Structures are given as structure tokens and as C-alpha cells.
Amino acid sequence: MSNLELHQYLPKLPDVGLQEFMEWCILEQSKAAGLEFKPDQGKLNNLAAADYSKQLVDQFMKVKPDPIRAGLVAVIAGKQADKHELTGLAAVVDFVSLYVKYLIPKDGSNPEDADAILAKASQHQYDKLVEVAKKHGVNL
Questions:
Q1: What DSSP line would sit under 80-103, residue for residue?
Q2: Which of 22, 33, 62, 91 could form a disulfide with 86 if both were Cys (CB 3.0 to 4.6 A apart)?
Q3: Contact at 8 Å (CB) between 22 and 56?
Q4: What would the pLDDT profile of 83-127 be if each residue is shown by its tens digit?
Q5: How many alpha carbons fall within 13 Å on the CB side of residue 96?
Q6: Taking the model in full, what pTM does it have?
Q7: CA-based R_g, the chain, Å
């Protein structure tokens, strides 16, 4: 279950759906990783969708309760997202979803627990992606 390949579905969603899924990853799922991210709404108000997404991701990536771990997770998520060869907003959403997912297992988790946690996070992401896709008339 942890090998759900969400990247294959991302290009099927319209940008508004991708943005909705990304916001959910950043604002909701990241709480499972212990992040209490509160975006600066003043910097987000009145931005076009593309600029909004960039600003939200920029603010989110600056939240690093454990900078070393966050940096390592960013490298892992970035390398994996690069292999998926997506473009545009789908590429950003792919990276963000991987980054958040890999932040969830806490330090000190044994490998079996970490695998189970990642599997659960992957399934949760897939379920949300399906929900968002249906809302926007896309069948995964």
C-alpha cells in the first residue's frame, strides 16, 4: 500500500484540483508530521492561482522544526519527484505530497512502523486525491 504512485494521476486533474489537493497536504496532512503551519494570509490575498501556489509552498517550506531532517526529506522527495518527470503545477504538487508524506514518520520509528505509517499516509493521500478528482469531474 505504501507504493501508491500518486504522480500518475496528478496530470489528469485541472489546476484548481491540484491546488486543492496541495493545500490539503500542506494545511491538513502536515499536522500528522507535527507541523502547525499557519500561512501568512496577507501575502496570499489577491494573488493569481499560480502565484498563490508558489507563495503557499514558499511559506510552507520555511517551516522546519527539525532543519536537518526537513532538509534530508526535501532531498529525497525532490529526487523522487524528478524521476516522475511531471511539469508545471503537477510537479510542484508531486513534490509537496512526497515531502509531507516522508515527514510523517517520527524520528526513532523502527523500520516496520515507518513502513506502516508511510502506507497509511499514502492511502490517505490517495483517498483525498480521488475525492478532489471526483469533485472536479475527473475519474481516477
A1: HHHHHT--HHHHHHHHHHHHHHHH
A2: 91
A3: yes
A4: 999 999 999 999 999 999 998 887 656 777 888 888 899 999 999
A5: 29
A6: 0.89
A7: 15
Among 23-27, 40-44, 61-65, the range scoring the smallest mean pLDDT is: 61-65
The DSSP symbol for 66 reads S
Q: Identify the three-state secondary structure at position 6.
A: helix
- Is residue 50 classed as helix, strand or coil in its secondary structure? helix
**pLDDT tens for each residue of 54-79:** 999 999 999 877 888 889 999 999 99
Phi, psi for residue 2 in degrees, rounded to 5 = -75, -10
Separation in Å, CA 114 to CA 22, 45, 94, 102, 120: 23, 37, 20, 9, 10
In the numeric block, the cell 499560480 is attached to 50
Q: Whose grid coordinates read 500542506?
A: 26
Q: Which amino acid is at 128?
A: K
